[in-house]
Amino acid sequence: MDKFIIEGGRQLAGEVEIQSAKNAVLPLLAASILTDERVIIHKCPRIMDVLNMIQILNELGCRTDFDGETLIIDSADAANHEIPSALAKELRSSVFMLGSVIARFGRARIAYPGGCDIGLRPVDLHLKGLKSLNVNIAEEGGYINCNCGKLIGADILLDCPSVGATENIILAAVKGEGRTLIRNAAKEPEICDLQSFLNKMGAKISGAGTSTVSIEGVRRLHGVEYTPIPDRIEAGTFLIAVAMCGGEAEICRAAADNIAALIHKLREISCKITVKNDKIYIKNGGTRRSLRMIETMPYPGFPTDLQAPVTALACISEGSTVIVENLFETRYKHVPELIRMGADITVRGRAAFVRGVPRLHGADVVAGDLRGGAALTLAAISAEGMSSVTDLSHIDRGYSGFEYKLASLGAKIRRIRV
Ligand code: EPZ
């Protein structure tokens, strides 16, 4: 198991380039089996979730070649409709594969993706949406078995704007018969990226980014060469790092509009932020006024994936901050570890009440999930003294070269194998 060894307390300065969005790339990989022609994805991040998804594609019979940041997928010989259970459990987002595997083979089998580190993570909206498209679904023995004579377009209303369910329905409907409407669809930028990827393959999708997405089924999709959007959560993580440590940095290849909610908050607490094309420039002299209230919401509200990092920021901001996590049931695993670093936080249900302290002190902490691990790392580089962060497998799922990027900004952080 790897751990970070961190000597905190240094200001940050320099520039970092943002990777392509994990949560955009994963559905694009699922979409790649909708054609038997070659798919090339440029600037593909080498993170564990992507490597696991590639392994699933290989198990389905796809040929893949991942050289540097260029990923080539050739699914001409794909023939297996069963998503391997070990990988399905490892990777929540494997459930997105259902829609595209059914569209390709007329059937799919996947182990029920268990609850994971941030909550129950149900898939009822995915299954309801697929059933609306004429898919027969049997859940037995921990497996979901799907089969379908012909995917037929439908008018689907989602009970909540689920990102994964929206993507799964798009992937199933894109080659279905007739038109599909998804109402109360998720509006995340990653949905827009999936729409532009599929339309480049010959799909007819419109409305992504609004609450109604329309898909006109087409008979065939052709190969594509594509560069995904930058990772808004990684960009937000580095902005919060500068806000916590003080200093200044340039975040390159960042889509500022996609994290407007965070930028608005950071300006409120006295960070100086300017945006020029795809660069975000942030400067913080060390003052951090109170964040007051953070409520996580579906896009364009404050993103749940930045809740843990912003909780770490609240720990060393003036006054008190109330944080409400509306999306997931147990997304506060980082709180007990922050308290060990001297934070003053009380959690009641979905709310965390944070009273700011001048500084955190170093401690040996354990990451419990992806974004919580990032939050603990930010807390450690801003704290006084030495810290270690253990169980980096969570961080490695979603951040490529996290410690190298932080070190290039001046943080004293290194990875050791124990
Ligand atoms: C996606 O997860 C992201 N993952 C998550 O990022 C992100 O936190 C989440 O969207 C919200 O933005 C990927 O894109 C791979 P949801 P997803 O379905 O699709 C409920 C990260 O750290 N729900 O939008 O699983 C669910 O319980 C990860 O990068 C149902 O009730 O999220 C939750 O309360 C973590 N039934 C809410 O919807 C369903 O069938 C939002 O979940 C599906 C979801």
UniProtKB/TrEMBL annotation:
One of its GO terms (biological process) is UDP-N-acetylgalactosamine biosynthetic process. Pfam families: EPSP_synthase. The active site is at 116 (proton donor). The keyword Cell cycle applies. The modification 2-(S-cysteinyl)pyruvic acid O-phosphothioketal is found at residue 116. GO terms for molecular function: UDP-N-acetylglucosamine 1-carboxyvinyltransferase activity. It is found in: Cytoplasm. UDP-N-acetyl-alpha-D-glucosamine binds at residues 92, 121-125, 305, 327. Pathway: Cell wall biogenesis; peptidoglycan biosynthesis. GO terms for cellular component: cytoplasm. The keyword Transferase applies. Keywords: Cell cycle, Cell division, Cell shape, Cell wall biogenesis/degradation, Cytoplasm, Peptidoglycan synthesis, Pyruvate, Transferase. Residues 7-406 form the Enolpyruvate transferase domain. It catalyses: phosphoenolpyruvate + UDP-N-acetyl-alpha-D-glucosamine = UDP-N-acetyl-3-O-(1-carboxyvinyl)-alpha-D-glucosamine + phosphate. Its EC number is 2.5.1.7. Phosphoenolpyruvate binds at residues 22-23. Gene3D superfamilies: Enolpyruvate transferase domain. Cell wall formation. Adds enolpyruvyl to UDP-N-acetylglucosamine. Belongs to the EPSP synthase family. MurA subfamily. This is UDP-N-acetylglucosamine 1-carboxyvinyltransferase.
